[in-house]
Amino acid sequence: MSEKQNQQNPKKGEPWKPKEKFDKKANKEKQKQEQEQTEAKQESNKTVQQQQQQQQQQTNLQPIVQQAIQQQQTINDKQIVQTEPSKEQNKRKDFLSHLPIFQDYTSVSIKTVKQIDPLTLHHSFIELCIQYQNGQCIGSTHRCVEFLNALKQFIKDYKLSKQSTYFAMAFLDELKKIFNLMKNFRTVNEGMSTSYLFIRECLMILRDTKLDENESKIWLCNQIDQFIQSKIISASELIVKNATQLIQEGTTILVYARSYLIENFIINYFKQGKQLTIFVVDNPQFGEGSQLVNRLQQQGISCYQILLSHVSYILSKVDKILVGASSMLCNGALVSRVGTALLACLASTHKIPFLVFCESYKFSEKSQIDSLSWNEIAQLEQGNENQQYTSLSLRYDITQSNYINMIVTEVGLIPATSVKAVIGEFKKYNYVDAIEVPRKEQ
């Protein structure tokens, strides 16, 4: 047999082998595949080694990382404790940042205020500012009267400097400084603003006269006395008279806090031999109701004292609700002690007449529809680190005109919508009467 036949017919038991073809292209492809396989194996080995190294590093760093995490958590806890009060302050700044917060001053610390010059500021105003702070001088009428009395003392002791030649112009600058000074201790009420405008008008008239310094002082003090007599004392007497004619004997009235006008009305009413049943509502935050009860007891007048939170239980026995006023706005809204708006809503619900006692010099050309655009922060307390809270209380609130049945004034009984008309009439007469122009006696 030939060799070709032997290759085509192998022996029994031996495996068949194909004939190898030595092609150059096929060999190159095989070599490339083998190189790619070896490179892939090397890369896989490198990745495995890198993973193993990373795992070892992580195992070594685990205790260090845990310690760092614990330290960061403690730092974050401290930061939360420190930042939460600031968040509360930021919240207050968002909607109450425009409202002033007044500090407590003593006769020594009050001289550190920027607007105060201890060498030139009169002692009467230092005492008045301290009374504003410690609560000895409360109530819009009382504050206005004390302001005018302190101003009279300052006028009498004032000495014109050598650089100034006219008393009116020099004292007008001093008046502006004093009025701005009052704003550092309490918000200036509308009665004080009206008295300030009146005195400023007097100084403008005095500027065109030929009075000397002493004559100017006497005339200006007389004008201040006229303002007190006409707009406060006489107005109070007329309001008491109008209220006495309005309220019949045996009426059950409810009064809130302490009002100068309502206090005088009750005392005068009982002096005439008439009887009233009186409920005095008190806000424990200020305690003015307790002061009114003590004052009435000194006059031998009995009354009932209840808290503002309990007032709804006795409204069925009340015939009229009487409240005082810090000011009446030109849109007919009432600015008074916080809690007055609540009483007005309850009076409207129970159909009880809601009467406001207010002198006309407290009428304001301003307009306000809410209690946050203008107000005074009575108290602001913040808790400690364990108690994160801010206790905030306001001093005034706004009662809209539709809750007010009548305003008792010295000009008569008027609706809340007539406030603007009364303001227009009094502006014609410099808020009091026609000011008599001073003339130098020859």
Automatic annotation (TrEMBL):
Entry superkingdom: Eukaryota
UniProt-annotated stretches for the region Disordered: 1-55
Pfam family, any one: IF-2B
Composition bias type Basic and acidic residues, residue spans: 11-44
UniProt subcellular location: Cytoplasm, Cytosol
A single Gene Ontology CC term: cytosol
MF GO annotations: translation initiation factor activity
UniProtKB keywords: Cytoplasm, Initiation factor, Protein biosynthesis
Keyword Phosphoprotein: no
Subunit organization: Component of the translation initiation factor 2B (eIF2B) complex which is a heterodecamer of two sets of five different subunits: alpha, beta, gamma, delta and epsilon. Subunits alpha, beta and delta comprise a regulatory subcomplex and subunits epsilon and gamma comprise a catalytic subcomplex. Within the complex, the hexameric regulatory complex resides at the center, with the two heterodimeric catalytic subcomplexes bound on opposite sides.
Family classification: Belongs to the eIF-2B alpha/beta/delta subunits family.
PANTHER family named in the record: TRANSLATION INITIATION FACTOR EIF-2B (PTHR10233), TRANSLATION INITIATION FACTOR EIF-2B SUBUNIT DELTA (PTHR10233:SF14)
Stated name of the protein: Translation initiation factor eIF-2B subunit delta
